Amino acid sequence: MRKGSKLGSEEAKVLSFVPTGEYYYNKGMKAYQRRELKKSLKYLNRAYQLEPIEPMIACQLSMVYTELGEYKRSNDLLHQILDGLDPHMSECHYFLANNYAHLGLFKEAYEQVSAYLDKEEYGEFVEDAEDLLELLELDSDLIVDDLYEHDELIVQQEKARELLESGNFQKAVDTLQKVIQDYPEFWSAYNNLALAYFYLGEVEQAAATLEEVLEKNPGNLHALCNTAVFYFYQKRHDELDELIKGLEKVRPLLHEHRYKLGATFALIGHSKRAYEWLKSLQKIGFEGDASFYYWLSYSAYETGHDDTARNAWKKLLEINPEKEGLEPWNDQQAEGFENHVTSILKKLQSEYTEEKLFGLFLTSISDQQRVILTHADFCDVEDLSIVEKVYLAQVLNSNGNSSIKVNQEIENMHQVALYLYGNHRPITSVESGLFLTWFTIAYRGIKERETFKNAKAFAAATEYVWNRLRNEKITKKQLCDRFDVSASTLTKYIAVVESYLP
Fold this sequence. Notes:
69% of the residues lie in helices and 0% in strands. By secondary structure, the chain is mainly α.
């Protein structure tokens, strides 16, 4: 600076800049419009700190939290607005409804969207709110606590789920039929009933149940997903491919629907799509059940996401330690009911003889036989029927207790099941239908003094009839070759087997 300069002789003046809440709000909005959500969150948070009583800032901040999947934080802000900052800011009810729907809190979502529509006849979000309300009402079971405030329904639904998971399909059918009788618009019960029918081999009844759901509740995602599962097991590839095209276009809002889609894609072998849905749920903090982590682990492993697969399996084992050793990266056979102790014990406690006989057969082939026979929940032998007691005795006899006299009819019945097991192992939910069909036939046959002398022919005939009931294509020649019986013998025993079916 030149000596004597006027500038040097004057005091320097500093212009202070004190940014306001409005300044940061505007910067936050510009970042939001550019979809820079993290930056928008930073600016809007600063704006909110400077002006905590300005409802517009709080509302915009809540919307950013929503888009980042921070639904609880968003809801806290929205409730603050309605509880004090501006109770007349009715659009907050609509934003809350969306957040609650994403969190799976369907009753709360229903209440909030209804509150918005009550207050805003011509509001900005009326059309979207009506769509959300229709979705919640369409799947009325999603707001079951609101529509059916009955403890008994919750108890029965949980009981039916456990029966399905443990393979007690006939008991599940009875339970679900009672639920539907009492609550004719509880669609979840219909969908589970269809699964129970399918696993029992009653394919036509299963299809009719799903058709009833889709007729009364069009677009029911659970029914569509169950139909895809049925097509997959029935190898109806063309129909499955067509249905998958539709399911791939679905973009559900509700967590339950996202989970159902992901699990369905995983089960039918579409691992990439399954991983996308299940991983997206995990990213927003979804806490699933054991099945969620099971399918997430498998779909992650099959799509090359090893870390996710191992972390999900670790979470699964915390919920269900019995799955240890069945990791997707293990080469051993898939798990079946024959080594699932809890499922076998539940079958042994069933009210139905055919299910108890199936449970005893599983006990006879299980690697966990000693655990089952000595378990505190093992069935009370005194409550077993004569047939069940004799079969149990022969299961024990197979371990070398030669003092027990063999009953030939029961031994032959068991041999038929072993022939079937030779071709259908491990026994999953689908194969369970075959064995339950056989033990239903066997129990009725025993009462008619059937000897089951030609065990191979009975096995072949049972498999033929079971496949026909499920609309599966299998030729008599295939079964004759597999079981080493003649065509005439197979035809004869098919007629015998059919005579013992309900």
